[in-house]
Amino acid sequence: MNYNKKTVYDIDVAGKKVLLRCDFNVPQDKATGAITSDKRIVAALPTIRYLLGQGAAVIACSHLGKPEPSFEKWVKKQTEKGKDPAELTEEKWQKSLKKLTLAPVAERLSELLGKPVVFAHDVVGPDAKAKAAALKGGEIMLLENTRFEKGETKNDPALAKELASMAEVYVSDAFGSVHRAHASTAGVAAYLPAVSGLLVAKELEVMGKALDDPKRPFVAVLGGAKVSDKIAVINNLLEKADTVIIGGGMAYTFAKAQGGEIGKSLLEEDKCAYALEMIEKAKAKGVKLLLPVDTVVAGEFPNPIDAPVDVETVDVTAIPADKEGLDIGEKTRALFADAIKNAKTVVWNGPMGVFENPTLAKGTIAVAQALADSDAVTIVGGGDSAAACEQLGFADKITHISTGGGASLEFLEGLELPGIACLQDK
Ligand code: ADP
Ligand code: MG
Fold this sequence. Notes:
17 strands, alpha/beta, binds magnesium ion, 6-stranded parallel beta sheet, binds adenosine-5'-diphosphate
């Protein structure tokens, strides 16, 4: 995959209509619909300000949540969820869509920019088209939720063409959506010159460089709940890194595969063979593979997740039958931190334990601390790992925290991302 893509800096946008795909998929209060964090809107400001400053007329668009744009399908889905079909009226469906309008985002964006944001009440309908046609250089509008259109998630060329018809240039700045081939994230690029915005450019520059041409030693730290979620990530990073560290829930499948007793710890029996294969692959490639040596165990998984929990530390291959491993132990923390200390590039995906519980967050904190203390290029990808860094207060000491959960995972897997592949090469 080529990460060397043109950005907004490489093209002339003055006086042009620019269709800008943003990630305005903001969290909202369930009851009131109020935006509970405007981080994603704030993150989009540099690209928007740049384009407006260049004299572009910016037509911003985004999806929000998962609306069901077909009434029949909505009825089917609700019925499957156990709702009474007799009560599923067209009016209720319309109401479910209205909850996911981007109107509150337009309002917040306007406050942040300190200028009006014209809001279109449809995506490619008469309102959007009229407002786009009237938009002048230096002005900005926002289209309604792209997923209100049936063709969006199907990457329907007809919808992509309609979107493109309003603009002269396409800018992709929704990194969290570039792993999806949708009409507004990829399809539209077939009809317009397409470049990246500043957010996507930063992701490509930092993560792309780390994977293609890393400063060495390159250490990859992998964790999280399941091996099955991370198979492709482990496999791809064994191709690139000098050291691969595996912690978190998936480490127990590795321990079991090597003949250890892991008690009630997370185990994916059908992935044991794969774990052994990865151990062999590391040996063959001369990659150092570090696995936990000790683990923090408890009798039960805490419920609720942050409830007080009684723990002890045991050898990772000798976990008592009635105990469950929920974090890496003290020796392992030191072992992992030591490997990270000498790195020049570190990529981290997946927490080392059940970090949502303060008693079980020590392993994840130790890794975050090691990244924070190192002078390496440090990159965190993955939704929960990014959340852990923010929550534990390490975010400003990390070189780059990827903004896209699923997208950054696919990036680390070495997959081709449709929303990136469609952009013009430099
Ligand atoms: P990311 O979103 O960063 O890719 P994952 O979604 O793969 O990370 O994994 C995060 C989850 O893994 C967290 O909710 C954490 O509680 C859980 N986890 C980590 N270690 C364990 C463990 N030993 N047992 C059970 N769950 C674990
Ligand atoms: Mg996750």
